[in-house]
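Subject: design request, 514 residues
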């Protein structure tokens, strides 16, 4: 059975076999090398994506701090056009009116957008209404309003589909006549002969809602990037600054970090480190977000970037690593990993194993300690995923590691109170008594369950219940988190290995503080 090493070690007691300890540490380092080979077998991009996703879960960064981080990154040299493009797409999507208001002030720049593009012209300027239920919209509204107000200089530029044109007076009383306007030829005339239209208040007003941005997002992103870096447009930078403060840190990370090159990502991590609290308290290691912050603080510089990718994968991406292990294209690394885990199983057989590793970790740098313990917890995750496939194997694991458990199911709950003073033999006796009672009432089916007693023990044969629960796919409630959360068989390996790592780190930090 897999030992979880959840009994706090005696720091001043016997340490066991030093040679075995050195062998396990050597195996852990070998494991780290094999896992790294697996991670980069298809390139580093996936490992970086894992880290991006993990960073997005950090909850301690304030809105003001996140704005400072991304603004410093955007204004650093060389120019971050890729990051700016990604950010602007997000602004267009979530704050189109903010971007539209900027575009309205630069409306004259859209002459080039429509020049030589009949498709764009028709898409924006052909929305004339019938004068009854439908009103003019978008560019059509701007075109009609400007034409009336400035009819002395531009009415002759209007092209009509009929044999003769329409007078301003006639169109004023019958707005639906604009439906007969030859939109393409008219706008082409305005592009050539009416420059005043493109900087007019009527045209600017049609841009303020930002809807035009989605006609060709790529064009407008490039336009806005130039406004940022070539014109250094203050109004645009203010919109960006406000957006970076209002948007959640998680959303910004998910959308922006993927656009960064590796050296740019390292700059981001260095900026992030400035706002991370480096002080360690034992209880903090129960928080996954803090665990990641601690790792970033310790190896957030460019020289430690590979180690950061490895630690994040081992601690936060256990399932993804297991998927790589099962990849048919990585058979060599997979066999090496299996061999290392097998050797560790033979070597780490008693409680002194973790004690010796922890004592060795006290002597090393904190990030090296996290690496060793993180790899050791991944071995536990790997073994649990392989060895605990049945209801009985999970029960045996809980019993052997002193974990009280309840089987969370609508109709049946199993409970072990070994850690509260009941021995395994007493538990077996209690199960035997239930078995004998069941035989006397075999023909009687119990239909009335007391569902209010959610965790009560039901009186039926334990072996029969195991089969039923296994097929029904129930979940477990465990004493390690005060029976607060149900865990399925699929989730248990990750939950237990996470719990082991956080427990070991709490012990280590407490020891270093004493």
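Subject: RE: design request

Done. Sequence follows.
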């Amino acid at each position: 059975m897999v030992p979880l090493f959840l009994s706090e070690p005696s720091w001043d007691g016997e340490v066991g076999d030093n040679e075995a300890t050195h062998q396990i540490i050597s195996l852990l380092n070998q494991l780290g090398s094999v896992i790294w080979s697996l991670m980069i077998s298809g390139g580093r991009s996936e490992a970086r994506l894992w880290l991006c996703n993990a960073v997005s879960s950090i909850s301690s960064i304030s809105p003001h701090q996140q704005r400072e981080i991304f603004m410093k990154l955007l204004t650093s040299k060389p120019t971050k056009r890729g990051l700016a493009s990604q950010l602007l797409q997000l602004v267009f999507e979530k704050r189109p009116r903010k971007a539209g208001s900027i575009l309205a002030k630069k409306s004259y720049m859209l002459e080039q957008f429509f020049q030589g593009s009949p498709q764009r012209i028709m898409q924006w300027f052909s929305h004339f209404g019938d004068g009854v239920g439908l009103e003019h919209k978008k560019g059509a509204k701007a075109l009609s309003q400007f034409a009336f107000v400035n009819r002395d200089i531009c009415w002759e530029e209007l092209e009509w589909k009929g044999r003769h044109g329409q007078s301003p007076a006639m169109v004023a009383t019958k707005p639906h006549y604009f439906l007969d306007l030859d939109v393409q030829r008219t706008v082409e005339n305005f592009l050539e002969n009416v420059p005043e239209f493109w900087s007019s208040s009527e045209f600017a007003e049609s841009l303020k809602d930002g809807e035009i941005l989605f006609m060709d997002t790529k064009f407008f992103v490039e336009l806005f990037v130039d406004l940022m870096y070539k014109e250094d447009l203050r109004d645009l930078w203010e919109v960006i600054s406000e957006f970076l403060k209002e948007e959640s840190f998680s959303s910004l990370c998910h959308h922006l970090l993927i656009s960064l090159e590796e050296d740019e990502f390292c700059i981001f991590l260095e900026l992030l480190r400035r706002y991370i609290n480096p002080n360690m308290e034992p209880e903090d290691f129960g928080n996954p977000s803090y665990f990641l912050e601690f790792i970033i603080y310790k190896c957030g510089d460019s020289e430690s970037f590979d180690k950061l990718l490895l630690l994040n994968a081992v601690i936060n991406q256990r399932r993804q690593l297991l998927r790589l292990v099962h990849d048919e294209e990585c058979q060599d690394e997979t066999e090496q990993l299996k061999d290392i885990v097998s050797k560790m199983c033979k070597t780490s057989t008693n409680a002194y194993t973790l004690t010796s590793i922890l004592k060795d970790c006290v002597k090393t740098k904190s990030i090296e300690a996290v690496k060793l313990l993180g790899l050791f917890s991944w071995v536990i995750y790997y073994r649990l995923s392989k060895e605990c496939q049945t209801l009985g194997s999970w029960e045996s694991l809980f019993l052997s590691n002193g974990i009280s458990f309840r089987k969370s199911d609508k109709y049946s709950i199993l409970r072990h109170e070994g850690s509260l003073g009941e021995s395994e033999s007493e538990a077996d006796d209690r199960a035997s008594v239930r078995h004998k009672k069941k035989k006397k009432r075999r023909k009687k089916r119990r239909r009335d369950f007391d569902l209010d007693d959610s965790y009560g023990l039901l009186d039926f044969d334990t072996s029969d219940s195991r089969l039923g629960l296994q097929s029904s796919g129930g979940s477990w409630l465990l004493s390690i988190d005060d029976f607060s959360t149900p865990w399925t068989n699929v989730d248990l390996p990750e939950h237990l290995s996470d719990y082991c790592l956080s427990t070991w780190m709490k012990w280590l930090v407490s020891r270093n503080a004493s």
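The longest strand covers residues 405-408.
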